[in-house]
């Protein structure tokens, strides 16, 4: 065999075949070592506190490790602009938004899916949707899953059936519905009600009433004072809820509230070990106390008691704003004059009834001669550390609940 002739021929074949082999190797490496490129796109409308939304977003984040596609996350409970876009999408697809929910997915701009999708359905949607063949229209999560799995390889078009949301279990209501659990509402109200400031103010009022008017006016003065405080707190709560809803800052307000509740928790527990009257123990500042006493001395008649109560409500709010603002931020997720709004109002009433119960209790104790105001103040001073400790423990639990509420809602996706 003449090697001098064979070697040049083999070299020629190598030169001709090598570029093609290299190109194939490079293409294969890009596919294996990188992401599978697609034309798939999805917009996910979700809301804070929606577990189905979290599942879908986490699944899409995981699929992004395999597929290269476009994903946009839009939170609607706290962002008015996103809510408007959400409503526009339902109008575009001719779907009844009152029967809708979250998550709502807009796939490739021509498919709307209401409800949670599993890995198989999303993977199939990426692969089929990338071909541009199908689907189109509006579906529930279950309808979309059944339809996407039934499409064959040659099907060009598919028709969307009418959405039936009655069996669409894997979705959450669009708005929170004032959906704060009672297990959060009631402890927050209790923590608010046992504030030493509240008890001191009430005892001070009754002491002044006893001194100037005698026992005959104590009961009525206490009832009027407590009732006006109740009404003022309701009105201030409604105003705060409305303000947060109008300017759409609930999301950021939750961040602030997490920091505030954590700080209040630390100060309350610290006060058990190192008590210091005033702001160091989440109490009325010392420089305001003489002014408050001067105002209380003006309560010489029942109308003046009501007026003083209005003024005192402004003094009391800073002492107890932590739990109240936390609850208001959760209740602010409702649209006005809806069923959810009235549910939130009912919760607001329950909260404030619990808040003023100690005021009514102190009124009855003094009015019926069980104890005089000086004894109540003495008991408050004796157990002030324990009161701060109980409040701190409750606030710690509320802070953990609030953090769980925030992180469950996929704010950080």
Question: Could you characterize what this model shows?
Answer:
With 413 residues, this protein is an alpha/beta fold. The protein contains 14 helices and 5 strands. The chain has a 5-stranded mixed beta sheet with strand order 2-1-3-4-5, sandwiched between helices. The longest helix has 31 residues, at 3-33.
Task: Draw up the topology in text.
Elements: H1 3-33, E1 36-46, H2 51-63, E2 67-75, H3 80-93, E3 104-107, E4 111-114, H4 119-131, E5 137-140, H5 141-150, H6 182-193, H7 196-213, H8 218-247, H9 250-273, H10 289-296, H11 302-331, H12 339-367, H13 373-382, H14 384-408
Helix pairs in contact: 4-5, 6-11, 6-12, 6-14, 7-8, 7-12, 7-13, 8-11, 8-12, 9-11, 9-14
């Amino acid at each position: 065999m003449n090697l001098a002739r064979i070697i040049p021929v083999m070299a020629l074949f190598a030169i001709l075949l090598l570029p093609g082999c290299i190109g194939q190797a490079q293409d294969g490496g890009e596919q294996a070592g990188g992401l599978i490129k697609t034309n798939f796109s999805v917009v996910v409308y979700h809301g804070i506190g929606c577990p189905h939304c979290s599942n879908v977003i986490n699944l899409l984040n995981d699929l992004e490790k395999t597929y290269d596609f476009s994903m946009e996350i839009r939170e609607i409970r706290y962002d008015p602009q996103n809510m408007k876009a959400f409503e526009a999408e339902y109008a575009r697809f001719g779907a009844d938004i009152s029967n809708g929910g979250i998550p709502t997915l807009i796939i490739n701009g021509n498919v709307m899916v209401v409800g949670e999708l599993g890995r198989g359905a999303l993977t199939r949607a990426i692969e089929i949707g990338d071909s541009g063949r199908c689907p189109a229209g509006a579906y529930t999560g279950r309808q979309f899953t059944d339809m996407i799995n039934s499409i064959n390889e040659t099907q060009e078009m598919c028709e969307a059936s009418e959405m039936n949301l009655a069996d669409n279990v894997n979705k959450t209501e669009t708005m929170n519905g004032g959906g704060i659990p009672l297990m959060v509402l009631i402890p927050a109200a209790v923590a608010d009600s046992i504030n030493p400031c509240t008890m001191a103010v009430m005892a001070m009022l009754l002491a002044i009433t006893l001194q100037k008017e005698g026992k005959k006016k104590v009961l009525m003065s206490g009832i009027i004072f407590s009732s006006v405080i109740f009404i003022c707190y309701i009105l201030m709560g409604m105003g705060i809820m409305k303000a947060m809803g109008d300017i759409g800052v609930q999301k950021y307000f939750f961040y602030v509230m997490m920091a505030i509740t954590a700080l209040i928790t630390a100060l309350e527990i610290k006060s058990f070990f190192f008590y210091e009257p005033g702001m160091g123990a989440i109490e009325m500042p010392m420089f305001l106390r003489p002014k408050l006493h001067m105002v209380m001395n003006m309560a010489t008649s029942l109308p003046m008691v009501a007026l003083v109560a209005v003024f005192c409500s402004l003094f009391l709010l800073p002492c107890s704003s932590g739990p109240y603002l936390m609850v208001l931020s959760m209740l602010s997720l409702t649209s006005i004059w809806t069923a959810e709004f009235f549910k939130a109002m009912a919760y607001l009433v329950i909260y404030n009834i619990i808040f003023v119960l100690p005021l009514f209790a102190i009124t009855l104790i003094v009015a019926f001669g069980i104890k005089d105001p000086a004894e109540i103040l003495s008991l408050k001073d004796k157990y002030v550390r324990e009161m701060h400790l109980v409040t701190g423990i409750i606030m710690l639990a509320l802070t953990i609940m609030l953090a769980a509420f925030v992180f469950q809602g996929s704010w950080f996706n």
